[in-house]
Each structure stands twice: as C-alpha cells, then as structure tokens.
Amino acid sequence: MLRPLLTALIALRALRRNKLRSSLTALGIIIGVASVIAMIAVGNGAQARIESQVAALGRNLLAVFAGSRRSGGVSSGLGSASTITLADAEAIAREVTDVVAMSPEVSSSAQAIANGHNWQTSILGESPDYLKIRDWKLAAGAMFNERDVRGAAKVAIIGSKTAHELFGPLDPVGQTVRVKNIPFVIIGLLESKGAGLGGQNQDDRILIPYTTAMKRLTGDRYLRSVNVQVVSAARMEAAQQQITSLLRQRHRLAPERDDDFDIFNQKEIADTVGSISKVITALLGAIAGISLLVGGIGIMNIMLVSVTERTREIGIRIAVGARPGDIRLQFLIEAITLSLFGGLIGALAGVGASRLVDVLADFKAIVSTGSILLAFAVSSAIGIFFGFYPASKAAALDPIEALRYE
Amino acid sequence: MSTPAHCAPLIRLLDVAKTYKAGDVQVRAVRGVTLDIHRGEFLAIMGASGSGKSTLMNILGCLDRPTSGSYELDGAPVAGLHRQELAALRNRKLGFVFQSFNLLARTSALENVELPMFYNHPLVSLRERRRRAAQALERVGLGNRLGHHPSQLSGGQQQRIAIARALVNQPEVVLADEPTGNLDSRTGIEIMGLFQELNDAGITLVMVTHELDIAAYCKRTVVLRDGQVISDRQTEKRPSAVQELAAMEQAQQRADLA
After folding, report:
1. Is residue A73 part of a domain?
2. ipTM of this model?
3. Is 0.80 topped by the overall pTM?
4. Rounded to a whole number, what is the distance in angstroms from the first to the last CA of chain B?
5. Most A CBs within 10 Å: which of B96, B115, B132, as the mutation test of the A interface?
6. How many other CB atoms are found less than 10 A from the CB of residue A400?
7. What does the alpha-carbon distance between residue A142 and residue A189 come to, in Å, rounded to a whole number?
8. Phi, psi of B189 (to 5 degrees)
9. Which residue of B has its CA nearest to A396?
10. How close A17 comes to chain B (CA, Å)?
11. Range of the domain at A205
C-alpha cells in the first residue's frame, strides 16, 4: 500500500470518529457547491429563454417604424407618426439588395365578432411574406397570397388565442369573423408562439392583407412599420444603413435633421439581451461563490478546533514515530476529504435544486457540466487552501507540550 | 558480557544538561547527568517533583534535546539528528508508556496498538499489522479484548494496551513515565508484574516513578535531586510482583473465610 493511501485511511478513520462534526463541516461546502450549480443553471436557463424569445421575433428581422408623433412636446410612441408610405416599403424591397422579404404593417385594435362571441384583439395588415419574416408557421389552413393582396380580399389568419376565445374547441378555418361589420373568411390558424419579449401575447391577433386593412379598416395611406428580412445576420448592419439612407433621401431630410423613423434591429437586441443575461448569470454565480468561500472558512475553522482538540492525539502520533509530514498530510487529507465529499453531495443537491426550479418556475434551469467541474475544482482547492494552515499548525506542535495538553 | 561489543551500553548519557527559559528565569532542569544503561536492564529513575526526572525521560525518548552533553542510543549519537530522524528513532527503537495511558479514544484496542506501525518505513502490510498488533495484545493478556474501545476497559487494561503499543515495533527499550501513577496499588503491582515478565524475556525497561515500593520491583534505581544523580544502585532482594499478588490473594481469601 502506498503511504499517502495509508495516511488517507488514518484521516478517514479520524473523520469517522466524529461523524456529526464532519458532516456539519461538509454542509458549508455542500450548500456552497449546490448554490453555485443551481444559480448558474438558473442563469443559463433564463438566458436561453430570453434568447429563444428574441429568436421568436423572426429571422434576421429589421423593423422600420414610423417616427413618434410629437404634439406640444408629448411623444405618442413609435409608429404613431405618418411618415412611412407603401411606396417607401416597396422602395426598400426593390432597392436594398440584402432584403429578401418585406411586409408592410398596418395595425389597429378592433372588436372581432364570431360564433356569438366578441373579443377585443389587434388586427394586423401584412403581406404574405410575414410568416417567413417572423419565422412562424400555420397550424391549419393556408396563408393569403399576392392575389388576395392585390384584390384586397376579405380573408383572415387567426391567432390561436383569438381563435380559442371566439370558437372554443371548434375548428376556426372556414368560419367567418366580423371586424367593424366586415365579414372575413378565416383561411388559416397560426401556431401558438407564447408571450413575446415585452410580455404581450403574440397569439392574440388577426392577420389580414395590408391592402384590405388600409382600404377597409383604417382608411389610412401610412404604414405603422415595415418588417424586413435580411439575407444573413452578417448583412444586418449594412442593410440597416442602406434603408436609413434610402428613407432619408426619399423623405428629403436635410443632413442636420433627425430620422423621422426608427429601425429595430433584431441582432442588436439579441446581442444586448445576451450580454445582460451573461452578466446576471455571472452575478448569481458570484453570490453563490461567496457562500462557497464561507464554507471553506468553515472548514478551516473546524480544522483549527480539531487540531486544538486533538492536540494529545497528535502528541501520541509524534511520540510513536509520526514525522511532521505525516501529521500535515493527515490533516490536509481530512480537510480535502471534507471538501470533496461536500462537493459531491453539493453537486447532487445542486442538480436536484435545478430540477425543482424546472417544476416551480416556467423555464428550464440548464445544468452545465462546466459548472459542476468548476464547483469540484473550487471545493478541492478550498480543502487544500483552508486545510493547509491548520495542518501545518498540527505538524509544528511540540510533542512534549502536546502530550501534556489537557 | 564477554566481549567489548556486548559491553557497549544501549544508552550512554555523558554530562547531559537541559536548561529551560521560563520567561526571564533560566531553569536548569538537568545539570550534568552521566548514565549508562545496558541491554536487559530494568531501571527506575526516582526523584521528587522538580528533580528533573521527566525532563531526563523526554531526552531519553528523543522528544527533547539536551542543551549540552551527549546522548548515544545504540551506539549512535542522537544530537544533530533532524526531526525526521528522531521520529524514525522513536518509531523503531523506543516504546512509550505514559501515566495517563494516552490511547486514542473511540478507537479499538487493536487499532491503538497498530498505530506505531502506520509510521514504519518501509510500510507494513495490513495483514502483518493486524497479526503483530494481535500478538502484542496477546502478550499483555488482552488477546480477548481486541475490538474493545478504551472507554470499555479498566485502567489496568488500558495501560496494558499502551504497553502492547510500546512493544509492537520490537523496540530496543521501553520508556515508562509513571506507568502506575493513575492506577490503584493492586493494579500497579499487576503492571509491575507484567514489566518483570517482559524484562525476564529480555526487554530493556526504563521507568520514572516517585513511589519507593514501585521502584523496588526494578533491578536498578537511580535517584535524582535538582537535576543531578545522587544515588545509583542495584536493588537487593527484589520482590516478584506475581508472588506478592498470589500472597495478597491468599490473605484476601483467609479474611473472607474468617
């Protein structure tokens, strides 16, 4: 048998002689490691969820909003001003080469009546490209087409929430819904997408051709926004610049004047959200790390008490021939055993806590192997670091004093 | 003791002195002790408290170093050895028995006796450790108490475990510091009986005591006063502890009958 193994055996026997104290000492590390793993899992889970919400906005989406209308210093929010026309939208699609899909957007809020129920919902006028831009699919039926747009057809695609409110369990496709007394034939049902970034329900809406919306509902020549899909994520920046200069030119804005529109860049949002959630994850991890540190100090504390309390034992060991190195190694191994044992139990507890978060919260905590390995590395490092001082103290004891110790 | 090699003493102290510093005061605990101890001896070191006998014992046990003078153990000078080498000496050549037994609590008799073998170089295999520890316990009459913890045993039995622990590495000499000090007189005589038996089997023993009737069981008595040897003589008409115990037994029986 190798000597370190033998020393480990001695250390384990010593820990076993004091089961309660050993497990209480390990508890500090257990809590520390468990919270590091759980916190990082929660952070990662939150990050993944936010990222999926940003991704749900669409694929390589640029949304060009009409500027905010100001009257007497009061701003009415994006899209409220009448600055973007259908001609602007068509120019973007025609002249900006990186744009692969475009949907002019007109929106209004209205009462929808069908099947004896009525429901306040938002009516969006869009082009057939809308689904492609938003990376959205239909659960049933078909999207309206270019001919419907040209003819300002009275057809509608219904969101799953709206459909549920109006038709309950009935199949909405083929039914008629009346909006502002105009009957629309429902030809498609959107797949459920859940809450959006701002928390609004994306499934509560009715899509109709933008021409229909402009002619029959709003009577407006202006658009709320233009949704645009760019060929690739790498071209987003360039496309945004081209659209900006195109619109400034079309709106004849002098160089010193501000843009009368705003461009929402999905990639920018994704990047910002991504970096914020990374910071949050790091913060959660750091807080948990402090509890790990406290656990380590707990180990040092108990080891110091243990060295004092076992002074006589150390004296006996030295008297029968233990070398200072043997004593140091024994106490070091005791500390490392406590911290590694704590690390192991803590890792299990951390994974368990993350599973609990899955059940209690509405997002999945993501346990990464990296965080488990990190917690292990840190807990063994803590064992060595915080065990070293008490172990050296034990090794330096004078055997005569130690044997006389009461 | 025919050739000079055999005559070489196991322990040779030459003008050994030890001075402590207790605050500002210099305490001269041992002041020039010269002493030879040969193999097979059974020596008692006597003296009042403060006579320097414990300090001398610590020096003999390589737990402490003399301030001046020389100490040769088994022909090799001890001065100038490192802590490591002193540890090895204690491990291989010395066995310790203490007044307060100094056993590990919550640890079986067998594991207590195994303890010195953990620090042997080279290592002793687990099975060999077990065998030798059991054998040593057998030798002190505790062959049937291997799994008992110290708290489950009487003082005399605990001291026997400590003696087994001192013997397990087959040391050159067993050093006992007031081994009967915590025991009643009858148990003390039993322990002295065990020592006499071990000494008859060839084991060298050095013990510190302040009790005259305990020292009487030893072959030779050295008396210290103020750190110096004031008397050194062989015991005449040494009693046998075993016979005395038998006599005490008979007296007890007679008293019970009467």
Report:
1. yes
2. 0.92
3. no
4. 52
5. B115
6. 18
7. 8
8. -65, -35
9. B83
10. 6
11. 61-231
